[in-house]
């Protein structure tokens, strides 16, 4: 039987280890890659090595950063240090930034609580969060975990941990979460019942 | 605004040049890659370089091969050299091989005729095909181009070019094409009209 050349079969096999890449997709990627110019392949290899070597977590918030430095948000003078947006992953912070209106800082939990996957409170960056709240004089924590069961559980756990804390001056720390409702552009007849339920429950004045 | 670290942004940008990989998929791949062990990343880089350097086309049929050698099929003594299966791409030959019953050889056209994409007869390996038919004493050519408009046009063009040729001994060269009908496992109510039409037209005795 005609097989693929061993070098190519090895490349395809390695590509199937990437998330969302099955055997057919890996075949297509590998065949595209071997048609690239040698300089382009070298440049991809370089970018890969650079990323692995240089991308680090921001030592303060845990966002993606480079060479162990503070991330852009933590390094910026213009951002409001008294508001923290708590997200599961670094990409979630990038998504919130894309909105373009948030001016506080971030805190990356590094996941969500999940007894099924064995993620327990001590696996998340909660101790660091408590420390930052005290040290930075935080007045509001926006819990922006995913709207999934794990994300919900994590939000409830954080509420439990943070509800007793006070902001500077002795007022209670403000704890908020992202609004639930129809996503923008949504059509009612395609919305799932849970979303419609939330949208009804949290309806606002017209 | 919090951006991605430049090294990572560069990697993501390069990955989006792969077929079927959009910005979101590239982000997911890049983040997965930077979490790999350094040894795994090195091994992927090695496989990539190996493939680019070593994968070549079989000098006879155009299938994927390595280091300029004949492919497994052309190198095998056991395959019937008098039957040629003509396919568009090397992966099509791999697909036919997976069936496990074909015992002839292959000829890769290197694409299909497409005036829209600017692929003309002289861009396909048709001259090589004519040469092989004479040199190898071919008695049957199975045209296995895709069941797409371009594939159909290519099949008709090949018929025109090959219909006058003779097999060794003076008999006419046998020209065949893949059967059209229901794919195996198909449900009639999900089949498209053109497929059902073909299946009816080419019905066989029960």
Give a quick precis of the structure:
By secondary structure, chain A is of the alpha/beta class.
Walk me through this protein's architecture.
Two copies of one chain form a homodimer. The first copy, chain A, is α/β, with parallel strands linked by helices and 206 residues long. Chain A has a domain at 77-205: Dna Topoisomerase Vi A Subunit, Chain: A, domain 2 (3-Layer(aba) Sandwich), CATH 3.40.1360.10. Chain A contains eight helices and six strands, in the order αααββαβαβαβαβα. Chain A has a four-stranded parallel β-sheet with strand order 4-3-5-6. In chain A, strands 1-2 form a two-stranded antiparallel sheet. In chain A, strand 5 (140-143), helix 7 and strand 6 form a beta-alpha-beta unit. In chain A, helix 1 packs across helix 2. The longest helix of chain A is centred in the first third of the chain and has 17 residues, at 38-54. Chain A is globular and about 70 Å long. The first copy, chain A, starts with 5 loop residues before the first helix and ends in a 5-residue tail after the last helix. In chain A, 31% of the residues are buried. The model of chain A has no long low-confidence stretch (mean pLDDT 91). Chains A and B meet through helix 1, helix 2, helix 3, strand 2 and helix 5 of A and helix 1, helix 2, helix 3, strand 2 and helix 5 of B.
